[in-house]
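Work Package 4 report. The design task specified in the project plan requires that, given a folded chain encoded as structure tokens, an amino acid be chosen for each position. We show below one input record used in the internal validation round.
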């Protein structure tokens, strides 16, 4: 297909985002209902075509999250995952049915290794089950996706046979996943071409890919597949996901856009929303983006070498292949301070992806902003994000910190005295520790009677300057589930206590959701 000065319309790649489903399978990336909804809103704003909101049969909490998103977000297809059986598909549909053009995404393995060891089924049985499941799903909606799990290690002729049969049964999207992250770009493109050539009715469906990054090739494999004829790519923001993660949406989208000469396709993505989306995902999941990460890392557009800096100052394109503004990085971001008004704050919050706060939320954020501005001179985006995290993505708090006093130094026994509310009832205590943070955690553990295990603890400063807020991230384990807790405060001991209590609150909330 030739693109003569835009006269021929380029094919559009369907961007299927699975940050909320596969992305959530990253260890420690559990998100609650409010967080998932907020993220889904942001994904809609960046115009992804399909949002995979979850796996409804997995738990009552997952079901509610998918339903809440399907019921309330319009203009975007919401997908729910279901194994190839009637109960999974019925449950998925129950969650999805009020959505706008909702999609049932059902899957079944096709590789001999999965058939033999996991499913204990023959190829004939798999073919039959795939067809009957798709038929069942197609009774509910014409928007049915079928995935051949572990496709890259399957016999391709068998995949062709299954795909052809499920198209006849009503599947409109066929996904060819590299479940184990084993594929190499040339080989993967060859497999896609083979499918395009050997499935007689392939023109009736969209071929999709879903790549894992175990060899660091998820984006490369997805691009190779696009050039071979795939028209849907499944991906996540920041590339989060099971093990080494999934195809990073921002890298895929910017590669297609920056090298349009190499790809006869486009996407609907509003690239200016990339940065706010990336920040929102890392704030919510507590999974920090590595500084050298392409497109969204802190150093992605930083020029350290003098020669490069000089070049960019003279002419940006000497060393920059992309304009930072195109991915939503505005240079010369004005810093807010004590005298900034509600309007300036509202504008800034909108640029961070929160442009639809109600008056109550906005008022709470504004009050916190003013309190913080009394303590420190410059308020950066990161400061505002930490306030939004607390005030907008709120969950009901079982535990609340009332006050904390700590004594530390090199000649004193570190002691912390703490007062908290447990379901509104006041409790207080004091404890000793190796340091004041250790003393605070021990005291909180005692006051709450928690059985959560502390796996990880990290302190960093949100921004530069000695008046910067300390930001603490903790990872807790509760009943085998990993939970992230975050807290920020100009006082790092208070920040640590807040993070710990945030983690405990999230653990309590998850338990509550599970029971309901
Ligand atoms: Zn996956």
């Amino acid at each position: 297909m030739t693109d003569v000065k835009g006269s021929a319309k380029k094919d559009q790649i369907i961007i299927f985002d699975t940050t909320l489903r596969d992305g959530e399978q990253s260890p420690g990336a559990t998100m609650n209902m409010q967080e998932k909804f907020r993220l889904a809103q942001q994904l809609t704003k960046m115009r992804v075509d399909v949002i995979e909101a979850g796996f409804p049969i997995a738990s009552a909490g997952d079901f509610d999250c998918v339903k809440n998103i399907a019921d309330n977000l319009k203009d975007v297809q919401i997908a729910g995952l279901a194994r190839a059986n009637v109960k999974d598909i019925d449950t998925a549909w129950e969650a999805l049915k009020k959505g706008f053009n909702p999609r049932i995404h059902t899957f079944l393995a096709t590789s001999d290794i999965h058939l033999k060891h996991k499913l204990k089924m023959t190829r004939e049985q798999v073919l039959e089950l795939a067809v009957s499941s798709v038929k069942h799903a197609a009774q509910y909606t014409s928007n049915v996706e079928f995935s051949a799990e572990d496709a890259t290690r399957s016999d391709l002729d068998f995949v062709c046979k299954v795909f052809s049969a499920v198209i006849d049964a009503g599947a409109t999207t066929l996904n060819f996943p590299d479940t184990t992250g084993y594929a190499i770009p040339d080989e993967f493109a060859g497999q896609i071409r083979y499918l395009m050539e050997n499935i007689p009715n392939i023109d009736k469906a969209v071929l999709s890919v879903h790549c894992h990054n175990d060899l660091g090739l998820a984006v490369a494999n997805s691009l190779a597949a696009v050039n071979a004829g795939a028209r849907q790519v499944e991906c996540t923001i920041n590339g989060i996901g099971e093990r080494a993660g999934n195809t990073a949406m921002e890298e895929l989208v910017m590669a297609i856009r920056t090298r349009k000469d190499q790809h006869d396709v486009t996407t609907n993505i509003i690239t200016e929303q990339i940065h706010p989306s990336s920040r929102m995902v890392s704030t919510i999941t507590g999974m920090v983006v590595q500084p050298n990460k392409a497109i969204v890392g802190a150093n992605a557009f930083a020029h350290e070498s003098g020669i490069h800096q000089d070049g960019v100052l003279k002419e940006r394109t000497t060393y920059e292949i992309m304009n930072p503004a195109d991915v939503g990085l505005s240079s010369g971001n004005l810093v807010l301070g004590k005298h900034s008004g509600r309007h300036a704050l509202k504008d800034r919050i909108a640029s961070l992806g929160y442009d639809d706060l109600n008056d109550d939320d906005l008022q709470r954020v504004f009050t916190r902003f003013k309190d913080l501005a009394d303590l420190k001179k410059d308020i950066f985006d990161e400061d505002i994000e930490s306030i939004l995290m607390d005030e907008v993505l709120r969950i009901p708090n079982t535990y609340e910190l009332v006050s904390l006093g700590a004594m530390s130094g090199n000649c004193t026994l570190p002691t912390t005295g703490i007062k908290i509310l447990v379901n509104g009832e006041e409790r207080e205590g004091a404890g000793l520790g190796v340091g004041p943070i250790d003393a605070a955690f021990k005291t909180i553990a005692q006051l709450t009677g928690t059985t959560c295990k502390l796996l990880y603890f990290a302190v960093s400063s949100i921004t530069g300057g000695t008046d910067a807020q300390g930001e603490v991230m903790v990872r807790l384990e509760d009943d085998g589930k990993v939970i992230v807790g975050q807290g920020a405060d100009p006082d790092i001991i208070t920040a640590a206590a807040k993070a710990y209590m945030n983690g405990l609150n999230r653990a309590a909330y998850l338990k509550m959701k599970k029971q309901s």
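Residues 22, 210, 212, 242, 246 surround zinc ion (CB under 6 Å). Validation will be extended to a larger panel in the next phase.
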